[in-house]
Design goal:
Elements lengths: L29 E3 L9 E11 L6 E11 L3 E3 L1 H9 L8 H16 L3 E11 L2 E10 L5
Antiparallel strand pairs: 1-4, 2-3, 3-5, 5-6
């Protein structure tokens, strides 16, 4: 979409997050799932997630919840932690955080099922929760 800051209803920030899908972030490593073929769920809660509001420059705080059913690979926690820490100084909208995390996990471990939620602290009297789900058998 073309950047048109004076058009009614269009944010002056339009187009400034277009680089997010291709931005380089630390790699999320994985290890072999020795229980491949068994359906079990792995849940991660990241209670101190921080990124920067791209409009105000102030920190956004929230809880990132990751739930997945592995196939051949499982997420390696140290690399996941380093990946999440890369967001700390990044100006990024809540919606883009959740979508980018989900897509990077799918690339890393190709799960059978994955759900990523960002439950953000109140900002300006508004509570934001963003959720995206992925299923290897369904829509992505």
């Amino acid at each position: 979409m073309e950047h048109r800051p004076n058009q009614p209803g269009i944010s002056s920030y339009e187009g400034r997050q277009d680089h997010i899908p291709s931005m380089e972030l630390p790699e999320i490593e994985s290890f072999a799932n020795v229980y491949e073929g068994k359906d079990y769920t792995i849940d991660f809660t990241i209670p101190e997630f921080t990124a920067i509001c791209p409009k105000t420059g102030l920190p956004d705080f929230g809880i990132i919840q990751i739930v997945y059913i592995p196939t051949t690979r499982c997420l390696e926690l140290k690399s996941l932690k380093e990946y999440i820490l890369a967001y700390r100084n990044l100006g990024i909208f809540h919606e883009n955080v959740v979508n980018r995390i989900l897509e990077d996990i799918v690339k890393s471990v190709h799960p059978k099922y994955l759900k990523v939620s960002g439950d953000y602290n109140l900002r300006g009297g508004i509570k934001t929760v963003v959720t995206r789900e992925y299923s290897a058998e369904g829509s992505k």
